[in-house]
Amino acid sequence: MAGCKGGATPADGGPSGSAVPTSGDARAVSPLDNPDGTKPGLAPVTSAADKARARSVIAKVATKGRGPKTGYARDEFGYAWTDSAPGGIPFSHNGCDSRNDLLKRDGENVRFRSGSNCVVTSMTLHDPYTGKTIGWSKSHATTVQIDHVMPLSYDWQMGASRWTKGKREDIANDPLNLIPVDGPTNGAKSDSGPATWLPPNKQIRCSYALRFAQVSLKYALPVTPADKQTMLNQCGG
Asked: Which pick of 48, 132, 137, 199 has the fewest CB atoms within 10 Å?
């Protein structure tokens, strides 16, 4: 999986996904009120006070240069969308893989495969990255992909190459680091940091920067100086 791609699942029938502009997701929660990533969406951070709170979080992030990608492979972070990440992260060991956990967390009008309360076959997603509403079905699975906010190869270059396999499985499946989004937009991000890629939807760029910082701090992973400055800039810093 190059960067955050790889959200596809086998075809399962049903209508194709479509996207239209939307005014926003009423269910979405600000990262300031969602420190473990278990609540849906990525609501904008808008007030001056909340932007100041966001900057105070981002300011705690350590920096260093991006290391080599030598040795990186998606498999170094475990089987994609495992339910058995060992670190006690939310949703793990609940009988449902992490991809479906995230589709259930953020989707509306969720429908499941017959006989299952896990495998999502269709839903409506209010995509924070583009501001569009996507009518998604499993038969066109790649129209929605699960973004790793801190991309796995970025993690590898910033220090995860020295971690245990279990810790890498944790960050790859932690809902704090995972957001269902428009597939092509996720593909365009690849493994970029904030200095080279930000969501097209400008309203949620501070929230995105804050979420990036939350993941960085939880896993003690630094970001590049340019990425940190860009993150601060999104929140008025």
From this structure: 48
Is residue 138 within 8 A of residue 11, CB to CB? The reply is yes
Question: What one-character DSSP code corresponds to residue 121?
Answer: E
- Distance, in Å, from the CA atom of 231 to the CA atom of 221, rounded to the nearest integer, reads 15
**Which two structure tokens, joined as six digits, stand for 199?**
């969501």
Which backbone phi and psi does 134 adopt, to 5 degrees? -115, 125
Paired tokens of 36: 């473990």
> Token digits for 148?
């790793």
Element (H, E) at 54: helix 48-58
Amino acid 221 reads L
Six token digits for residue 137: 């079905």
